[in-house]
Amino acid sequence: MKKMTAYATHKPNLAAVALQEKEFALFRDLIYRIAGINMSPAKKPLVTSRLAKRLKHHGLASYGEYFQMITAANGETELQMAVDLLTTNETHFFREPKHFDFLRQRILPERKPGKPLRIWSAACSSGEEPYSIAMLLDEALGCAPWEIVASDLSTRVLEKARIGLYPIERVPEIPLHYLSNYCLKGTGTQEGTLLIERKLRERVQFMQYNLTETPPKLGEFDAIFLRNVMIYFDQETKRQVVKRLLSLLSPGGHFFVGHSETLNGINEDVQLVQPAVYRKP
Known about the structure:
- The protein is an alpha/beta fold.
- Helix content is 39%, strand content 17%.
- It is built from ten helices and ten strands.
């Protein structure tokens, strides 16, 4: 592997500062306003642990002081840091594999020859989902044109996704033939990592996008993946988010949600094809 910026993960250092209920309420309301995410009381330890290192970094004595910092007129940079820390969720390569089987067996055979197949990985987190899709498309389509747009609210995870460098522990998630064709094993200073091949990294367009806002003009997509993120939204936010994304789905296109999610009661404009997969008429 060529020499590159090293990547390492660290567990947050917990500061000896308690997060008060009224402080938790401030962060909960802030994240809801910005990202539409509902944080239940069970998320209080997560808020505590993920923000503790920022208190330590700035030498602050309370979470209330940190909240004042990020909501001040000059606090935009630190606010983005806090939002990144509180909205990043776990993901995996080839998560929910039946969706990838559907993509290979149903969507690819129906594509129009010569027309680029376009897929949007919304809420892509650190990139495992769009790179999984890219491996499948590159193998199945060869020289046929395809495009992947991947978006997330967090600038921190998008930076990681663009680099395409992951802990070697992720290897079991990736089918062996994909590992051989699209991944490099780190050596020397990069030992313990795997890197997604450049040719795939260059085919995925990463961009920041807040799902609660009007989407940019991206054109229409043949498939949109919005998986395992709606569980954090209330019903009205779900309706609005799905409506926005469906406006960019081509007629006949497919919309993927997580297996623990459904569009029942959220949108009646699409038809259920199989669990967690919908089609726009």
